[in-house]
Specification:
Layout (H helix, E strand, L loop, with lengths): L4 E6 L1 H18 L5 E7 L2 H10 L6 E12 L2 E10 L9 E9 L3 H11 L5 E9 L11 E7 L5 E2 L15 E4 L1 H4 L10
Parallel strand pairs: 2-3, 2-5, 5-6, 6-7
Antiparallel strand pairs: 1-9, 3-4, 8-9
Bound molecules: inosinic acid.
């Protein structure tokens, strides 16, 4: 696929190796528990599909959809629930599976929402951690695939204006080429 990427950050092979490691770790930690994997449409789907297949223990999966508003001054943390979970989380071990945690405001909203439903325990597994941009504090991130630099990334679920999610690797977007004719792409 012709994609406007400046450079590949994580190859498909590197992602697959790390996902296998995370799957093994989660399988050890959650053995014998009632594990529910939860992700957020649409970006989390790709990681959830691979991570869940790297588990050696039974797990249920569920998805939710949200929309977040990002004003001109950057992330607002204002999130609206568009599709709720089908599963009841009460008394279960919930693992929130995220593609990327950036400011952490979205994850903060999700953690608050899920905790209010009394899970037995709640933790986060994020494939990518853009930790340099973190605003939110105290997120229960128990598993992280890679720490990534403060650049706009696409691929493996991450989109730019709904495109490039389907790339099998993770790359830095070339903002100029992504928005030809424009004065540089607005990527946030
Ligand atoms: P946060 O609330 O700032 O942590 O934002 C999390 C959400 O922002 C992610 O689930 C993504 O949808 C989006 N996001 C953050 N960084 C990137 C990126 O580099 N590429 C694509 N989407 C991103």
């Amino acid at each position: 696929m012709q994609a406007p990427v400046a450079r590949v950050l994580l190859s498909g092979e590197a992602i697959a190796r790390r996902v296998a490691e995370l799957g093994a770790e989660i399988s050890r930690d959650y053995a014998g528990r009632d594990l529910l994997l939860v992700t957020v449409l649409k970006g989390g789907l790709y990681f959830l599909a691979d991570l869940s297949r790297a588990l050696t223990i039974p797990a249920a999966v569920d998805v939710m959809a949200i929309s977040s508003y990002r004003g001109g001054k950057g992330p607002s943390g204002v999130v609206r629930l568009i599709k709720d979970l089908d599963e009841d989380v009460t008394g279960r071990s919930v693992l929130l599976v995220e593609d990327i945690i950036d400011t952490g405001l979205t994850a903060t909203y999700l953690v608050r929402l899920l905790r209010a439903r009394d899970p037995a325990d709640l933790a986060i597994c994020t494939l990518l951690d853009k930790s340099a941009r973190r605003i939110a504090e105290g997120l229960p991130i128990r598993y992280r695939g890679f720490d990534v630099p403060d650049e706009y990334l696409v691929g493996y679920g991450l989109d730019y204006r709904q495109l490039y999610r389907t790339l099998p690797y993770i790359a830095v977007l070339d903002a100029e080429r992504a928005a030809p004719g424009g004065a540089g792409a607005r990527v946030r």
